[in-house]
Amino acid sequence: MASLFDQIKKWMSYDAETEFYYKHNPSLAERAEYLLRPMRKTDLRAVIDIEKSAYEFPWEPPTFRDCLNVNYGCFVGEKAGRIISYGIVSAGAGESHILNLCVAPHTQGKGYGRIMLEHLIDEARRRAAEVVFLEVRPSNHNAIKLYRSLDFNEVGTRKGYYPARNGREDALVMARML
Question: Whole-model pTM?
Fold first, then answer.
């Protein structure tokens, strides 16, 4: 019993020290390793906060919970112990769909979206998908550039797919064979 208590105490004090050093030495946090791991229910608050900061029309919190509950591939990216990205992929019947991919606005443009997207593609392969689909706003030029750089091609359009300030915005449907 004492050894379990000691292990927990050691883990907790390590977390407190790490948090302290990252807070008081921001350059350490910037150089910290970017780690991917499965999303947990306890991550939802951070994920939802990122979603709200990144999108004018964010997903509702129950949507994230549903994705976890039905065992979609839900992942987060952490840096210095803080969640800075997430991605969700579904798969079935030989097809996969990237449902959501987001990087916190203050960390965009540093390659974290590419790493997460590559991870979601690998997860689709693990789930026996032969093709991966995704939708993207035509106005999201950076995302389109990323998708094209990883061999996604435009295969169609969904009219009025996304909510927009002045009504609805179409979605480009993109796909990549695995």
Answer: 0.84
Tokens representing 132 are 């991966």
135 tagged catalytic = yes
Per annotation, catalytic residue among 22, 72, 147, 162? 147
- pLDDT per residue, tens digit, the chain (178 aa), is 556 666 655 555 455 555 554 555 555 556 689 999 999 999 999 999 999 999 999 999 999 999 999 999 999 999 988 999 999 999 999 999 999 999 999 999 999 999 999 999 999 999 999 999 999 999 999 999 999 999 999 999 999 999 999 999 999 999 999 9
Which residues make beta-bridge pairs with 136?
172
- Catalytic residue check, 72: no
DSSP state string for 3-67: HHHHHHHHHHHHHHHHHHHHHH-HHHHHHSPEEEEE--GGGHHHHHHHHHHH-SSPPPHHHHHHH
* Catalytic position from the list 19, 78, 95, 135: 135
Token pair of 128 as six digits: 């026996």
Rg (CA), the chain: 18
Integer CA distances (angstroms), 26 to 19, 20, 22, 47, 74, in order: 11, 10, 5, 22, 28
β-pair type (82-92, 95-103): antiparallel
